[in-house]
Amino acid sequence: MSNRSSVTDPAATSTGISSPPSTYRDRKSFLSGAQGPLIGLFLLIMGFSFCSSAFFTLRNGLNIIDQSTILGILALGMTGVIIIGGIDLSVGSVLALSIMVLGWLPQDFGVPFWLALPLSILVGGLCGLVNGLLVTRAKLPAFIATLTMMSVARGLANITTDGQQVVGYPEWFTGLATERYLGVLTVTVGLFIVLATAAWVFLKFRATGRSLYAIGGSVEVARLAGIQVGKLTILVYVASGLLAGIASAVMAARLDSSQPSSGLGYELDAIAAVVIGGASLSGGIGSIAGTVTGVFIIGVLHNGLNLVGISPFIQQVVIGIAIAVAVTFDTLRRRS
Amino acid sequence: MSNEDPSLSFRPVRLSLRGIQKAFGANIVLDGINLDVREGEVVALLGENGAGKSTLSSIISGLHHPDKGEMLWESHPYAPDTPGDALRSGIALIHQEMKLVPDLSIAENMFIGRIPMRHGRVDRAAMVRRAEVHLKALGLNVSPARMVRGLSIAAQQQVEIAKALTLGARLLILDEPTAALGMAETDNLFAQIRRLRSEGVSFIYVSHRLEEIAQICDRITVLRDGNLVATHESASVPVNVLLRDMVGRSIDRIFPPVSDPGEEEVLRVENLTSASDDFRNINFSVKAGEVFGIAGIVGAGRTELVRAIAGIDPIRDGQVLLEGDILQPDNVGEAIRRGIVLVPEDRKSQGVLLDQSIADNLALGNYDRLAPNGWLPPSKIGHFAKDLIQRLGVKGDPEQKTRALSGGNQQKVVIARWLAREPKVFILDEPTRGIDMGARAAIYELIARLAANRMAVIVVSSDLEEVLGLSHRVMVLAGGRQMGILPRNGANSVNIMEMATA
């Protein structure tokens, strides 16, 4: 009754283990589940290249990537949360709290910056832990728990400096977001690539990652199969909070300042990116490849519409429509 | 009690189907069905899953449209576009799964879409009054102002029937009406069916349960693979004839032989008492290779008991010993690691992830073994699944969504998942609920194989024939109390039912 008996079983080999059916390749492919959004992204790039000569240039491409890192990092955490069937409305506010802690600790308490940086990220993790405990222990719906945190963290962010901004970070720190290594890569973009790859590997190749899909599919089925649903739920919210903290550091480096109003509405952009990337808000479905594609669809839309000279107000309308179109296509595709 | 009225066959035909044909894509699900339903008669529609019963019910009630053929309703051509049309004509389908709105009152549910108004406002008093009359007539003693949430399935079913009657329904299609009912509830339902029948209401009664059909139906129509294979004018047809009609071959013995159990005791349950008082002071033990049946009516605490043994629900008192060692209660992960697994009663909400692949469903619960250091690449899941699918004869591809499988194959997926762990105690709660006859036999074979592999097997079932046919010993529960344990040769459906209803 060995688990791997099929590998050595001649009968099994003759039935096709030696040449796996195409469905297997599908499963292993980096882009599985993200083909639809990817086609959308490709069409957008084609369209904007046609409309604006400034769009399809290396410089602008790097711009888009730079501009997408913060949303991208938030969306990675949101992907995990949505896969387990939850939602995290607090990431924008948690980002604001973390970024204020980063400026406030050195400014008001003389905490060295190198120490304030990890502390500010941990504050994000702590907010995530509270979210996780509210969901698993207090049995609050995720929507309510994180709505609470959205309000509390935003309030705390304002309390730290009484609503004032903090300006001026060490040069090495702001350089992380501006200095391009090898002519292309800033450290912050590199960080996003590393985080996205790690998240992708985790969800695709780790048993714990697969467990998240099971929880999203059905909490009861997962629990009866021995999966520690409570523990993993907390873990997912902590990860989302930590990633909001990391995103705040990227923002501080990019802007060389901390504002308590940072990240306003980012939670909805992050949710939009995940959903455009093919995830289901009812849980169990979603992928990092899809999310990253969704992040770039939003990034390309903003950037391209700017270049074409369309007002930010109209951009909001367009992005709203993009969400509806992406999800409609996805729903139709799944049904067929 | 059936066919007691000799004039039945002279009663006017109410519904008449002629040459009904229906295909979904290339798959012909109904092929030229002719069927008459007369006034005040109960016609059984019998057949395996996939035989076309549901499609036929759906066509009569306006959910689907036939490709060919015609229907006559009270001598007029009848072609409902929607279930609303059917209802207005007087035909109502009572679903297996109730379709009531949980947070509206019973009365509101009954009058939904036609709520009585007075002076532009909802006339609650009139609505409640009218609802009450119909509920009382059906023997349901609850206030119509009560919310539907929390009502038993039986009560919800009565609300559905009352609703159909307020709409003037003269033909009720009951789809597996007793699937979730206990004995007393079933008896009450039958009493209501008989009363309504005497008032001239006609029924189409869709079911797998042969004993029930004999009790309640006047005529039996058997479908197989979309064809009407037999119509028996009397319900007193021998069961094996019906079985042969249904599966197309004769079935003498559905239950495989189970070898004698070993001597060593694998599982011992001592004084087990549920934290929520669903069962009290349960004591028994199961040996290696033994099939231990648990019988009882709905609400006896059977499911709660096996869930507690498998570590799913907390206990207040007592203990479970596995090979002599105490098992940590209320810890399902621990129970699984130590070798106690449970195939739950509600496959769709507790057993399988419907929207995930067969492979993912099989790997679930085996992560610790498949990925001892946490790495679980998709290829590994694929190979693991392929092997299990082959060994258990699951009809499906590893990458196929589990939703697309039949109930029997879904159940095999759940069993296969746990079989891969080579557990010591294998618990199956209602292993064949909602599974057709052919697939049932395969599940029984599997259960016999578990025992032959020296596992201690516990089978919970409402189907007495099943418990008796599979088990070496049968424990009977009633109201959370252990009524006794009967050896196979001393157990029969009569003494079990006596204990279960004592």
Please characterize this protein's 3D structure:
The complex is a heterodimer of chains A (336) and B (502). Chain A has helices at 5-8, 10-17, 22-28, 35-51, 58-83, 91-109, 113-136, 142-161, 171-178, 187-205, 207-217, 219-224, 229-255, 266-276, 288-308, 312-335, and strands spanning 166-167, 257-258. With 336 residues, chain A is an all-alpha fold. Chain A has one domain (35-43, 54-335): ABC transporter involved in vitamin B12 uptake, BtuC, CATH 1.10.3470. In chain A, helix 6 (91-109) runs antiparallel to helix 7, helix 6 crosses helix 13 (229-255) and helix 7 packs antiparallel against helix 8 (142-161). Chain A is globular. Chain B is α/β, with parallel strands linked by helices. In chain B, 34% of the residues lie in helices and 25% in strands. Chain B is built from 18 helices and 22 strands. In chain B, the strands form 5 sheets. A 6-stranded mixed beta sheet of chain B has the order 6-9-10-3-11-12, sandwiched between helices. In chain B, strands 18-19-20-15-21-22 form a 6-stranded mixed beta sheet, with helices on both faces. The model of chain B has no long low-confidence stretch (mean pLDDT 89). The chains are: A mainly alpha (336), B alpha/beta (502). The interface between A and B is large, with 39 and 46 residues.
